[in-house]
């Protein structure tokens, strides 16, 4: 049958992180792998109560097909959440679309914007899920190097200028960026850079896709205005999700954008999955109506902050004095990007990690050109305190063994 | 922004049925439109109980990301359901994939099999959702005419032979068919034709995609072996769904096929929506473990049978003596295909229907070449008895008025 596969099917690569999930459950395994939140932080009793209630009393909605656009109550509630949280105003329900997680939003964006010869900008390292959704339609990506304060905007401008010079500016469809606590890099784009990015996008008439799954999980420092708020709905498409704050199991993503784009995404969604499940949408809607999500996640934030600080401290203790080892210090989110000296191959090291019961995601998984080999992504949110300590200890052991064997240390 | 849209985005058409849903809620409206089951038939109290329980006790699974392949318990249970129901054997969990409704399965099939120049076979009239998913990747469809006993297999063979003669057989990816109680036509493929279709597919080495959302809703006659059972997993990909028997609001589709194809669909799904919601999958899994789905749907079958017989009787009463009016007599499912004499334009008539508070789906919506204009799809499952009677009365009034005005009667 394989000779029947489409060209894109033949070039599809299985998602390393999804594959990692399968070995995570091995007894004794400590995983810094998946970007998996801690399910103990989710309001399960409240959701259980709501779920029972809406299945019994609102079954004509919760058990039925819903509109492709999404539950109207959920969209209304989300508008008010965006206002309270980020001061975003001037949008109504037609600016919002509810998707099956943000991954589905990325798939829809890919469908409505990309042709085979379309160009798009992504960071390096890049979020795997975005890269795979986009590359299904076009592999013409342009990299943006990541710094501690976000993408290198000078480089973005230079690249756009070059593309314009060669007469291909009309092929540039969007700049994709994770504004807060980048996955996998952990870095956040500064306010100044956000403003410059919007200016450049205006100048070259390019859409910005701002993916912000982690913005609510800020552990220190002051929140920065979303690019969407700076650039407005005509310039920026904002992707949000409930996966890190209410539950990934619900699979709920929210797209906020100008009505023409949202409407086209709705049409694409009709041919993709008809509609997001009615039940999970109404659970989230009623939850937002009854509880204050932002104060509910305060204990989660405290918990993750502590784990993040612990992992940073353990990394410092284990690798602080070793030359060429460095890591990002995120102010929120789920990830630390750990870079080793040149020559270390984290993909190869993962096999040793599996044997030693410690998982991480090799940096290569976040590149489209088999680079980032000497980095790895570490997630601190799921493992308990003692596993963070023990996990970094195991990591150190592997690093030292591998480094000595390869004459890198 | 519209100049940024992809070529496929520019040719996307909004789904007429989804648009119809929006006017369905108008007071006084009777809808024969959507293929929407009656939510009163679903076991809401059982599902409410299960939902509460699994959110409280199995929250580490139900609120977390799941595997892309789907809930293992749900897949195990579904294997045993397929065996009990259709005698399908010789499959294990790796032959199954859980999708966000069957629509998502169609999207994944489109992604993994179709290139821009790929050829696929669909019926005429065609199920809208399939046509729109496939046409996102290729518009090279070949029609199969529908008869009372299913697609015209001679025509299929003749077309395959012609394609082979011109050296394009390797471009033919699949034959898509709804085996039972076709949407929109209501017809069922006979056993003889199923066997011949498999023979021909074997001869020309073409995959059959058997979509069977309605097979469990048989009101009379004897069940016919699925094409999947006749042709086997190397030849046939089977799509099933919980939407008509447990609830469309859960958005659960099941793909059954050979492991190579299922695995490739899993990879495509990773880039499409990561995984189907864990909560809705576990609700269905526990339901299948605790209750006998097939006996639970018996009252539903009785209810729908009565409504179907009533609509057929009302059609006979209103149109039986009118020349050139005919309709299919389905043995199950949700739809009757009602054909009027040449010259009637059901799309134009729909506007009158909206004004007269009666909705149906114009035949044109089920064609890829703006034909089927003198047919319409009628669904009998959702409206109460009195609305079926009154609805057909309103339909008659519109038909007579339109027919006289256009000198067709």
From TrEMBL, chains A, B:
Residues 146-173 form a coiled coil. This is Transcriptional regulator with HTH domain and aminotransferase domain. InterPro entries: Aminotransferase_I/II_large, Class-I_PLP-dep_aminotransf, PyrdxlP-dep_Trfase, PyrdxlP-dep_Trfase_major, PyrdxlP-dep_Trfase_small. Keywords: Aminotransferase, Coiled coil, Pyridoxal phosphate, Transferase. Belongs to the class-I pyridoxal-phosphate-dependent aminotransferase family. The lineage of its organism: Bacteria, Thermotogati, Thermotogota, Thermotogae, Kosmotogales. One of its GO terms (molecular function) is transaminase activity. It comes from Mesotoga prima MesG1.Ag.4.2. Its cofactor is pyridoxal 5'-phosphate. Pfam families: Aminotran_1_2. Homodimer. GO terms for biological process: alpha-amino acid metabolic process.
């Amino acid at each position: 049958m394989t000779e029947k596969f489409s060209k894109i099917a033949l070039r599809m690569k299985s998602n390393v992180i999804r594959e990692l999930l399968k070995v995570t459950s091995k007894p004794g395994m400590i995983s810094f792998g998946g970007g998996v939140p801690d399910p103990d932080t989710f309001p399960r009793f409240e959701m259980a109560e709501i779920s029972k209630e809406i299945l019994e009393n609102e079954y004509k909605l919760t058990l039925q097909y819903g509109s492709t656009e999404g539950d109207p109550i959920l969209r209304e509630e989300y508008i008010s959440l965006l206002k309270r949280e980020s001061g975003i105003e001037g949008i109504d329900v037609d600016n919002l679309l509810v998707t099956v997680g943000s991954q589905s939003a990325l798939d829809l964006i890919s469908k409505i914007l990309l042709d085979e010869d379309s160009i798009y900008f992504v960071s390096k390292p890049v979020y795997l899920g975005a890269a795979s959704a986009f590359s299904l339609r076009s592999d013409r990506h342009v990299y943006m190097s990541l710094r501690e304060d976000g993408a290198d905007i000078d480089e973005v401008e230079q690249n756009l200028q070059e593309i314009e010079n060669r007469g291909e500016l009309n092929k540039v469809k969007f700049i994709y960026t994770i504004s807060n606590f980048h996955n996998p890099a952990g870095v956040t784009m500064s306010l100044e850079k956000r403003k410059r990015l919007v200016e450049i996008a205006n100048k070259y008439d390019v859409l910005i896709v701002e993916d912000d799954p982690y913005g609510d999980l800020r552990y220190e420092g002051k929140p920065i205005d979303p690019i969407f708020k700076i650039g407005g709905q005509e310039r920026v498409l904002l992707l949000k999700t409930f996966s890190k704050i209410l539950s990934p199991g619900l699979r709920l993503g929210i797209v906020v954008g100008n009505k023409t784009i949202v409407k086209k995404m709705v049409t694409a969604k009709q041919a993709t999955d008809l509609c997001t499940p009615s039940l999970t949408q109404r659970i989230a809607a009623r939850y937002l109506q009854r509880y204050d999500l932002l104060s509910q996640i305060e204990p989660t934030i405290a918990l993750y902050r502590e784990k993040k600080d612990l992992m940073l401290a353990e990394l410092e203790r284990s690798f602080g004095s070793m030359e060429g080892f460095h890591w990002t210090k995120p102010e929120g989110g789920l990830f630390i990007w750990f870079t080793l000296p040149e020559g270390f191959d984290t993909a190869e090291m993962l096999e040793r990690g599996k044997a030693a019961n410690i998982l991480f995601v090799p940096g290569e998984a976040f590149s489209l050109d088999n680079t980032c080999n000497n980095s790895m992504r570490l997630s601190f949110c799921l493992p308990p305190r003692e596993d963070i300590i023990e996990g970094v200890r195991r990591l150190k052991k592997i690093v030292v063994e591998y480094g000595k064997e390869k004459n890198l240390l």
